[in-house]
């Protein structure tokens, strides 16, 4: 408007599913992703699940010409898997690690070891505005009907929304791309839309091309787990590009695309997820728009209430687990004390007429010690979980109170 | 200036040393702190080391009349110990937990269990500006000459500076109060001054009253550990009130005070730290000041380089620890495999002429198993540590490059 120049920004977002030794045809796919990115020349590329630093380095070398700026976010045991390639200089980075991210003992799910985070970077755009772009992944959903990780994912969504509210004023436009592991109408997504004021590129796009309903996990993809998608024959949309304009800018989504199966000229897709590509128009307005932090939508209070109820349920479950692991630790300690008394009794010559069962005694003692160590560790872990769930519930309550007091 | 109203803001900051069962005369001191806060009527109170939620609740009840708004930040196993009381409404809170905070196996130091964090809150000020106030505590320094925690504390200082840079634009004035566990000229403090653009209320104060050099850990205090302060006969200054003005505001420190030993009318001080009290003048300027994010001070590059060197040293130490714990885990695993082979051999009837030493065999197996579990845990922990130190080193390098490219 008013003749201000428009910036046309092309963004690419993909969960690369590049787990060393586990992901099928990983190296081939990473090469393919690199080739495509080099050919297409996007402005900003947000990748997730690039677990191997070697893959990142290979991509960096290959893409140095067209994406001179890049960053890999390190965290957790395995890494965050997040990396960003940009045409624009990256001025500054910040990693926010979610306070809850599954359980270390759920080895088969492994989310805990990834140190899931939101990687934030301030990239400056030559013509117009500083951009804040975020790449992220939330905790996976392993079973939708009985989703034990829902409270953790909601805490992550809440922390993400809070993080965006607190950091976004340093930029003019916020762009978020990632695998949110949530369906479009899930409470976490509604929270991000309502409380962080983000807009969904799929819903806003003037033109869409790709898998039906913008799905990014589709049964046609040869790498997806078909049994997971049985209840959703069309697939599900869990990868998003979200955005919001701060201060005096407007953002419009001109076009949104997803890939649809095999990459052009090959027999395999990039990943088990489809890539999301958005073309955004960013324009400076004549005068600053009103603050867009938090919409005053009356439905927002309902969304926060719903999220708080789920977090509350998670809190009670965590309290139960804390209690039972604590009780187990106490029992193991009592058993050890009992054994110590028995051993002392034998040393003092009591019951000398019968042989002392050394082997079973030792086995029992080690078993008790093992249980004591493990259950103490679990107790500590669940204590932290309780603290964080409680803290989030508190924060949500504070926001609810503020929302209700607002006219 | 230009006739704009001035806001006079009185801030109280104290490390309360209120550890249940461990801190001497805790309940009495918490009562005393509450009485003083009620009597003095500060605008903003930032407390650290309030480890017991009961103490917070007692304070909250006592102070409800004069500080209607308050927040307790929950994190870690024990808690963050941070709480805030305010005359102004608290609009929003955010907890940023540092990615590194000591070692879980250093039980005698216990920092890891506290989940040390920076608690940030957006408090609105009726007359003028939204304030962002931060209450925090960094990792303690247990031995200045051979400070094993320096890299962790520097990562925390860096994350704090980055956090302030990214979140501070949402406010007009940033106020930070806390126990930074660093001397005034330590590299971490210089980093906060240089990179986050914070100003030290002690250095800026027009009028000062209290312990010499603004010290907050003084030998005169009956609760301090005298042996720790032997090299510093005057005491040390490790509690700070720092501030910065964003956008169109100016902040001036009219007065800074510290307590000096016993609280008035009693024989005990509030804590083993002295409290810091600042009176600030906040005024709107006629026109927006230039961005104050990051000073272009040429010395800043030296400070970041110095910090990066320390973090690099920490990284190499962490890599060594990761390697040795990994090697230990492999050795334990080998021993277990050897034992399994021996047991299978015995079952298969080999060496049946000699009695099988069941007891020592079991003891050895359990020992190996214990070492395997512990060293695997340590290996995972140090892997995370390496990732975070490496990530911080990267971020610092990126900033250094940007600083050097700047004219």
From TrEMBL, chains A, B:
The keyword Plastid does not apply. Belongs to the neutral sphingomyelinase family. This is sphingomyelin phosphodiesterase. The lineage of its organism: Eukaryota, Metazoa, Chordata, Craniata, Vertebrata. GO terms for cellular component: membrane. The keyword Hydrolase applies. Keywords: Hydrolase, Lipid metabolism, Magnesium, Membrane, Metal-binding, Sphingolipid metabolism, Transmembrane, Transmembrane helix. The gene is Smpd2. Its EC number is 3.1.4.12. Gene3D superfamilies: Endonuclease/exonuclease/phosphatase (3.60.10.10).
């Amino acid at each position: 408007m008013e003749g201000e120049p428009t910036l046309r920004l092309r963004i690419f977002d993909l969960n690369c599913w590049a787990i060393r030794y586990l992901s099928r045809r990983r190296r081939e796919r990473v090469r393919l992703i690199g080739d495509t990115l080099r050919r297409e020349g996007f402005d900003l590329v947000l990748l997730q699940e690039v677990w191997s630093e070697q893959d990142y380095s290979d991509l960096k070398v290959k893409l140095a010409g067209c994406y001179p700026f890049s960053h890999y976010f390190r965290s957790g045991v395995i890494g965050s898997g997040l990396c960003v390639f940009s045409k624009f200089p990256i001025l500054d980075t910040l990693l926010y690690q979610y306070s809850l991210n599954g359980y270390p003992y759920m080895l088969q799910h492994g989310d805990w070891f990834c140190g899931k985070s939101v990687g934030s970077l301030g990239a400056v755009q030559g013509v117009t505005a500083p951009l804040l772009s975020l790449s992220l992944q939330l905790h996976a959903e392993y079973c939708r009907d009985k989703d034990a990780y829902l409270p953790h994912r909601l805490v992550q969504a809440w922390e993400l929304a809070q993080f965006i509210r607190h950091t976004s004023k340093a930029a003019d436009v916020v762009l978020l791309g990632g695998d949110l592991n949530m369906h479009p109408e899930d409470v976490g997504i509604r929270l991000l839309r309502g409380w962080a004021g983000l807009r969904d590129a799929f819903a806003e796009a003037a033109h869409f091309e790709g898998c039906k309903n913008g799905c990014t996990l589709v049964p046609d993809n040869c790498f997806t787990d078909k049994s997971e998608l049985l209840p959703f024959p069309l697939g599900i949309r869990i990868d998003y590009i979200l955005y919001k304009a701060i201060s005096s800018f407007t953002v419009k989504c001109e076009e949104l695309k997803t890939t649809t199966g095999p990459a052009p000229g090959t027999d395999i897709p990039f990943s088990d997820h489809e890539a999301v590509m958005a073309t955004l128009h960013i324009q400076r307005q004549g005068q600053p728009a009103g603050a867009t932090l938090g919409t005053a939508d009356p439905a927002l209070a309902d969304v926060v209430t719903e999220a708080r109820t789920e977090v509350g349920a998670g809190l009670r479950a965590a309290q139960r687990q804390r209690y039972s692991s604590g009780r187990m630790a106490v029992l193991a300690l009592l058993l050890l004390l009992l054994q110590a008394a028995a051993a002392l009794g034998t040393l003092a010559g009591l019951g000398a007429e019968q042989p002392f069962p050394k082997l079973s005694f030792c086995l029992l003692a080690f078993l008790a010690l093992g249980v004591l160590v493990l259950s103490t560790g679990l107790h500590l872990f669940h204590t932290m979980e309780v603290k964080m769930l409680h803290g989030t519930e508190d924060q949500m309550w504070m926001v609810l109170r503020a929302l209700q007091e607002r006219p």
